[in-house]
Write a structure and sequence with these properties.
single chain, about 140 residues, mainly beta, four-stranded antiparallel sheet, three-stranded mixed sheet, 2 helices
Length: about 140
């Protein structure tokens, strides 16, 4: 019922994106959900960088890419199981695209790339990469 809640509270938008050279290919024909706030206390695509998105949302993959300084890293490509997403200004990325896990994961920016050593067991990136039990996802 979380997905129904997300759609009711936040609205769901089907996005058919065309690749933009400045943004990168996000995905084509996937369901993205966003709620609209940016202050960290209300819902929105920029909300709560580093928190476990799957606690409230029904994304198949979601997480945050951080800069080494700790702030969110925008416009970073995150390839998960054949789908490439681009982080927003908070460093957050998410999608409800159908994916199969375990899946290979690679983070790319400016020609540099880093891949997870082992396939990701699920798409809830911030659940494991919480900065305590495992390092945050950072720029390559």
């Amino acid at each position: 019922m979380r997905a129904a809640h997300d759609r009711e509270r936040c609205g769901a938008t089907f996005v058919n994106l065309i690749a933009s050279a400045s943004i990168g290919l996000v995905a084509s024909g996937i369901l993205l959900m966003g709620c609209g706030g940016t202050d960290g206390s209300s819902a929105g695509a920029l909300m709560l960088p580093g928190e476990d998105c799957s606690r409230c949302h029904s994304f198949t993959v979601a997480g945050t890419v951080f800069q080494p300084s700790g702030g969110g890293a925008p416009l970073v490509e995150v390839a998960v199981g054949g789908v490439t997403l681009t982080s927003n200004t908070a460093g957050n990325f998410y999608a409800a695209a159908p994916l199969t896990f375990p899946a290979a994961v690679e983070v790319r920016k400016g020609g540099a790339a880093v891949a997870m050593v082992s396939p990701a067991p699920h798409g809830w990136c911030n659940r494991c990469h919480d900065g305590a039990s495992q390092a945050r996802v950072t720029l390559p």
